[in-house]
Amino acid sequence: MRKAWRASVLSIALCSAPPAAAQTDPAPEPAQSDDAIVVTGETEPPPRREVFDQALELSRVDPGRMYEEALARLTAPLCLDVTGVETDLADELAARIRANAEQLELRLARGRCTPNLVVAFVDDSRELIADLADRHPRMFELLGQAERDEILADDAPVRVWNVVETKWASGAPLAWRHGRQERPNVRGRVNRMLLPTRKDIDFALVVYDLDAVVGMTVVQLADYATMRGLSHTRPASGDQAMTTILALFDDADALSPDERGPAELTSFDIGYLRSVYFWKPEYSVPAVGRLLSVRRRAGDAMMEAGE
User: Fold this and answer.
1) Nearest of 169, 127, 144, 156 to residue 280 by alpha carbon
2) Closest listed residue to residue 234, CA positions, set 248, 252, 214, 222
3) What proportion of the chain, given as a percentage, has pLDDT over 90?
4) CA–CA separation, 28 and 272 (whole Å)
5) Dihedrals φ, ψ of 218, to 5°?
6) Model confidence pLDDT, tens digit, residues 126-179
7) Distance CA 253, CA 238 (A)
8) How many angstroms separate the CA atoms of 119 and 131, rounded?
């Protein structure tokens, strides 16, 4: 089922994207490539509790299940495909995302591989997602109702479909019954930090509407795809305690493209991603301060950036 779904993603994305040679005005302007993550943010992070609340809000983790869930992350080597823009632009986007992944010490796939992160630029992202949902209703039903509503919203400028699978801590798949995973009961265990399971992002699809990205830079779009594709996050409103690239599309009514969102990954974003990827994947959310450590890691990112 998952292989067929991946094949459909690539087929629909390639068919929906305009020919590369025909793309001129909608494509974001190229940015100078950079092998290191550059962060922006406040000179001093807000109180740790505020940062924790922000991280929890954007993580899609149910606050009532923090001791029962791990933070979803990519565990397989990153295999990236960027489609719908000119080759040179696609290469720049891919290079930036890979550089971000390397800073997090993620493994990169070598040679030919099956993509587990697809970034597509199309005329109508809703049509693409709706087509996929119609072709693979069982896959679509694996998403929570709020996430299904989010990616099918009429006016969303970008849509992200994360395929997140709960597995045993070893990486072995759980059994499926009637289209649902049979998950072990983790309530009442003595060690509330280590879980018997982990949550893997098996595949992520980030689809941008071409009209919505006019004036945005390669770095902005690549960094947004990094946050949405390498972690199971939701878009931000822009009212959070710390700035985040997840609010990139919150300023859609800005007077000029230059006023839209952060220029790149912020200190919060780096702190969040490092907290997701530093610890073992089977650690529960509160284990060793997973999200409580975001503030400290955000501060470290600002120091490294010389702020």
Assistant:
1) 169
2) 248
3) 47
4) 26
5) -55, -45
6) 999 999 999 888 888 888 888 999 999 888 899 999 999 989 989 998 887 776
7) 13
8) 17
